[in-house]
Amino acid sequence: MSIHPFGSDWPQIADDVFIAAGARIIGKVRIGAGSSIWFNCVLRGDVGRITVGQRSNLQDGTIVHISGGRHDTEIGDDVLIGHGCIIHGCRIENHGFIGMGAVVLDGAVVETDAMLAAGALLTPGKVVKSGELWAGRPATLLRMLKPEEIAGNRAGATGYAALAQRYRRAE
């Protein structure tokens, strides 16, 4: 892993965060307790702020950036972001789920317990409301999530938090 300042701004990382080999954390980035940044992720807080809440996971190859002067990136607590996503100048609320390879663009919002499907493209300013599943390129509302799907998404985030702590113990 590699942690770098941007100017005088150093990342602020809770003591129990797991940061995997190859990850790059740069500048104005804050990562909350119990979160995990997996292999080859990049969080580049150079022209704005990136905030990652507690117990959230950014899986392998995900890139997080901001829109300078317009949109910081806020990732809430217990968020699951799949492999190879691009998260840019947006807000993902607590228990949000972003499927593998999805892209979330400037000013977009994924609300609590909402899901963006794998490979989806959430265009600027769009809002995925709580309990909704959006899919496609560009993403549109597909349907409402079932309670068991919301529970499964929450369990996925919990499982990644536990896996990250196993990795930390193995270091």
How would you portray this structure in words?
There is one protein chain. This protein is mainly β and 171 residues long. It has one helix at 147-170, and strands at residues 2-4, 12-13, 18-19, 24-31, 36-37, 42-52, 57-58, 63-65, 73-75, 80-81, 86-88, 91-92, 97-98, 103-104, 109-110, 115-116, 121-122, 127-128, 132-135, 140-144. The strands form 2 sheets. Strands 1, 2, 4, 6, 8, 9, 11, 12, 14, 15, 17 and 18 form a 12-stranded parallel β-sheet that branches. Strands 3-5-7-10-13-16-19-20 form an 8-stranded mixed β-sheet. It is globular, with a radius of gyration of 15 Å. The mean pLDDT is 96.
Distance between the termini: 12 Å
CATH topology: UDP N-Acetylglucosamine Acyltransferase, domain 1
- What's the count of strands? 20
**What radius of gyration results from the CA coordinates?**
15 Å
Percent of residues in helical segments?
A: 10-25%
Series of H and E elements: EEEEEEEEEEEEEEEEEEEEH
Oligomer: single chain
Instruction: Give a quick account of the main beta sheet: strands, pairing sense, barrel closure.
Output: 12 strands, parallel
Shape type? globular
CATH superfamily: Hexapeptide repeat proteins
Strand content: 35-45%
Q: Which CATH class?
A: Mainly Beta
In the residues, how many domains can be counted?
A: 1
**CATH architecture identity:** 3 Solenoid
Class from helix and strand fractions: mainly beta
Number of helices: 1
